[in-house]
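PT: before anyone asks, these are the final sequences, not the draft ones from last week. 1171 residues across everything. Please model them as a single complex and drop the result in this thread when it's through.
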Amino acid sequence: MPEPIRRFASSLVAIALALGAAAVIMLAFHANPLAAYGALLSGALGTRQGFAETLVQMTAFLFAGLGVALAFRAGLFNIGAEGQLTVGALATAVVAAGLHLPRPIELPLCLLAGALAGGAWAAIAGLLRARFGASEVITTIMLNYIAFLGANYLVSGPLQGNVAAPETALISPTAMLAPIVPETRLTAAFPLAIVIALALAWWLRRTVAGYELRAVGRSERAARYAGIDVRRTIVQAMAMSGGLAGLAGATEVLGLFHRFNVQLSPGYGFTSIAVALIGGSDPLGVIFSSFFFGLMQNGALSMQALAGVPKDLVSIVEGLVILFVAANWLGGRLRLRGTASVIAPGSDELPAQGAAAR
Amino acid sequence: MSGLLSVVTAVVAIALVKATPLAYAGLGGVISENAGVVNISLEGMMVGGAFTAVLASYYTGNLFLAVCAAAVAGGLMALALAYFAVTLKADQIIVGMALNVLGIGGAAYLLSAVFGQPGASPQVRSFGSLSHASSGDLSALFTNPSANLLFWLAIALIAAVHVVLYRTKVGVHLRAVGEEPRAAATAGIDVARVRYAATIIGGMLAALGGAYLSIGEVNLYSDGMVQGRGFIALAAVIFGKWTPLGTAGACLFFGFFSSLQIVLQRTNVPAQLFEMLPYVLTIIAICGFIGRSRPPAADGIPYEA
Amino acid sequence: MSAAGPAPALAGHGITKRFGPVVANDAVDFDVRFGEVHALIGENGAGKSTLMGVLYGLLRPDAGSIEVRGQTVRFGSCADAMRAGIGMVFQHFLLVERFTVAQNVLLGREPSASGFVRDRAAEDEVGRIAERYRFGIPPGARVDDLGIGARQQVELLKVLERDAKIVILDEPTAALSPAETLALFDVVRRLRDEGRAIVLIAHKLKEVLALADRITVLRHGRVVGSVDRAHADESTLATLMVGRDVDIDARKPRDTREGEIALRVQELRVARDDGAPAVRGIDLEAKSGEIVGIAGVEGNGQLEFAEALYGLRPIESGSIEWAGRDIAKLAPARRRELGFRYVPADRQREGLVLDFDTSENALLGDQRRLARGALIDKRRARERADAIASEYQLAGYAASAPARSYSGGTQQKLIVGREVTPDAKLVLAVAPTRGVDVGATAAIHDRLRAVRDAGACIILISYDLDEIRALSDRIVVFSAGRVAGTLAPQDASDAALGRLMGGVGAHA
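LR: through. Structure below.
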């Protein structure tokens, strides 16, 4: 079957299996899976308020998920979305509290600050990979912790804007994103995320830079022969990836919290790895997977309140989904790394993967 | 003068206490990576071990069983890692991430589902007096060895892993599998079996590190108590160049930073800066600035028989 | 089973092995006797490694049988073959770099006491065998401290330690220096005199003639000749070895003239990936409007030479000048801007992004040049793909089909159509018609000539002598990283080329 269909089916199967396995766990604890899932869905979709909040959660997942997906497309593992999100949120909060310009200037500037901060943070990992070959898996994980600790320090110290709590000052009113649906938390961040997702899909398919990024992700060797500057592409990809994660943080600050503190993200950056994977690393797919995760995240609270099932069940579902997607039981090409083989390499009599042979 | 001595011994004591859970997880990482399996989920396994130890202690009151239960939990998680990574040849990083989420989420879920209270478990029977050492009393480690069993076990394990890895047939075969699985296969070594075994043992050790945190240092499980130590352990493995002694040394080194941060709390140096050091140093190491930090050659690459 | 004389040590009868549509071995008969060195020669792709894979238990044949000492056997894995007394030294070593010589040789069977390895006993044992064959390697040395010749000795020790009576050597001299080669020859002779059966896979004719008692030539998976040493000479062997892939059209007269010298390479030295020298000081000049054919057995430095010319491989020393300008430091993208085009050796991993569709692959390398501002010009990409498809008759063509879906020959045509464009100034083409049918080969050749007539300089690397003769204005022969000789096409008979390629010519 064609690749996108296979990936979509793979994701669906993974989700179904995960929900099934979670149901079994619930049964083991004398909970009713149907009631639980029912409560989850009704909480997440049943009311206008609930649905709006689902979209609010979806927004953060979408931004960060797009970032991780973009990195995957370039053949890179960005595990650092959480740290980039943190850095972006902090930068936005500081800029938005410090500047008091008219809204048409203030808002884009604050968003830009968040994107640039997140992008720069990720670019560090990109540079280290391009220049020293240092695995971006390790460096982004490390940078995550450096970001958390640094932010922690800054908001308890030099950047503390609220004497009562370790957080930055309240942002300027012209920087605040107002709800677009009354009595909900849904702001313009959501449509912005959708627009950016569509723009990213377009960028990947239609621009030269997008083409080169995809080529590097699919075949670094062929990209070299095509004259593509692989090193620069890697750094660029990481920077864009971090910028998107930074935007996730920025919109959280501007739309929801209006300041920065370390409780800002319930792990959006980490979950976004799953979002990207299940979305097949494609911006359009990520729209759907981020909706699924937003639904889970929001519905979990209702599931706990109405059916008495601890909301952490949702984390279990999430972990299982990642596992089942990675298992790749429907075949196809998920692998990002190469594989070894017993027959000596370079023996050109044994064809490479796939049916095409000399 | 005696004031300075007591400060130094306090720093050493706390460093040892802080380093021990890292060392368990680090040893686990060393074993599996030397066989060629990357284990990003040390964190999740530590969480699993920490929770399971408390659970077992709660129901049986027996510390030995609690420790065993923790090891079993880690082993099961590692079995999953081995199955997906070795048999299904899935990407080891992704599987590791999944196990982290499962470990942390699973523990949180069970915390609510079993104990009915989110956030922290009730207090259980524990080794307890490590709290003496962790408040700076170095002699406590020696005067009460059975209460500090998990500490001395770690020391013994570090030595044992070193000896096994470098001086025994089993260790040589394991390292061959991690460096050049094709050579190992043609020499008659069962690559898959070695990788399964190494991964599972690694998971068991990581879980013991978690058990240390919950029933060794304190006497309960609370949400977030592992707090990234699994990743520091990963950093220690890299920093220690994938050797048991090097990793243990790196853990001790990182432990010192934790310790200094606690002891020097009164000074103006921000705690977070100390805590950042392990991560910064690891980045520097992985860029090749601290000699060649090269993992086993086949680390992370699924072996196609 | 032969009625006369003892059964051969190892024999394969009617061995056939297919990989998908490719028949790597086609009803091959091969045997080796005790006390004999039997060389198996042929071009890359001829099926030598596959045959050895079958005889060593790594591959299961689709047809045919294997006999060891006259008894039919079936190998489930190379462990079975090893138990039958067969040892193989691969071209790409299977050594654990961080381990010592002794650890590598005795891997899996280390002498031990209650689980602890006895390193000293191991080193003593390995040391004894090493001394018997006069290998100078200390058993306690780490493999990654050893040079290639020494590493090969470690591989030999692995085989000798198990006392393999049947030894298969896969291209053993490929990376050795002349002195190391001579040392190896002594060892091989010694092993033969000890009564072992030796299979030597090689393509350097001089060496084969120095060592072998019998020589069998493989081409396109079939045995095309098998001779005793007494009846063999370089020319015959060379002629048997290099073949006709395809019916190549005859030389066509040209009515354009070549121009000025465009490319000047001096004293070029280039290393392989593992650091060994590949190009050992080559001087070459090429004019615009000229096709220079580089002939040679695969692996004699042609690839590294081409990669250095294109900017993918750094040069150790020497210079590359294009239109009077030193380009040694330019990246491939910059050289492409100057008009450089490259038809790479590995079509699937270097020439195409298999997961991209055909029109995107038609753009590869020119995505910036043919762009509309920052955007990919999809229309032009599609037009290009269509044009290539019709000119070269791409089977199963669809602009949106992924390149992966095409056969190897079609993929090759796509790449050639993309790279060999009228505005090219320098074309580096490596085996451009490998695996391509008659009609398209003619079309590719016509295109190369047309581009040459338009003033391009073409460096053609090919392993097909007919193609070299049909296209080249001048033929340069590479052997062991040096220019072995230069011939005009009319003087380039198979025998003459074979002599130079086999390293038997003036510069051998």
